[in-house]
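Please think about what follows:
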Amino acid sequence: MWSIAGAFFSTGATFLRAKLGTRPLPPGATGLTDLDHHLPPPPTARLTTTSWEPPAHNVAHPRAARCAIIVSKHEQQQALRQTATLYLGNLSFYTTEEQIYEVFGRVANVGAGGGIKRIIMGLDRNQKTPCGFAFVEFYTHAEAVDCMRYVSGTKLDERVIRCDLDPGYKEGRQYGRGRSGGQVRDEYRQEYDAGRGGWGHNRLREEEERKKIEAEQQRRLEREQLYQEQAGMDSGGGGLVPAGAEHMYDELEADARGHAAPAAAQHAKRERSYDQEDQELYGKSEKNPRFRDDDNDDEV
């Protein structure tokens, strides 16, 4: 078996020499040693000649990501223990800063050097109008905690408001993060809420599309009816009756239906003279004193 493998290897070496056009090997030389300079370098040689660097978007180790999340949660807890800011949710779009100040000012301890520092109203990112949330900053952490305990769950503008401690207000957080510019909760709201702009934004788009489709169908139906009426008038049939010509069309329809007798009687009644009417009413006809019966009475 080893002899067969050796014969096969020698045949392959002879074939390579014929393809490469090299001289015959001297006696005692091995084929692999003399053919190394004709073959491409091995893969390891190619890898050692180039340097490899990891991509710039390499993802951090999952353990490092978890550690970062733990650190951020710890920092958030520390910020909540020291914060003096409250987040207000479920507000009406029509609630003003004065109303918020009136409600939270009753709990704030102004006499001890505290009170409300400022109120930041949440705004629609596109329209810059109130969109149902706000931030209230106090001077002390204790005031923020007291307001969260006593005010959260109460009604303001006939709405139950929600108060939560906030790590701290930063510029840009006053704008809504929804696709339409408002809050995300108003994007997917399916019920009608008059205090928050009516329908949700997605439902509002659906309602607008539905009304647009209905209006287009109504216009199409009106156009079809108008075309049918015009086609009927062109063919001599029914259609729109011009103003002031209703009695003519009534008579024509009566003649077509076989009710011409009443119409003829009414027409004959209109053509009677005053003498005929007097004869029917008084049994005799009275002469008009302004007219003479015979012109022969005039004698010169």
User: Anything to note?
Assistant: The first helix runs from residue 2 to 20. Residues 8 and 64 are 57 Å apart (CA to CA). Residues 67-176 form a domain with the Alpha-Beta Plaits fold (CATH 3.30.70.330). Strands lie at 85-89, 116-123, 130-138, 162-166.
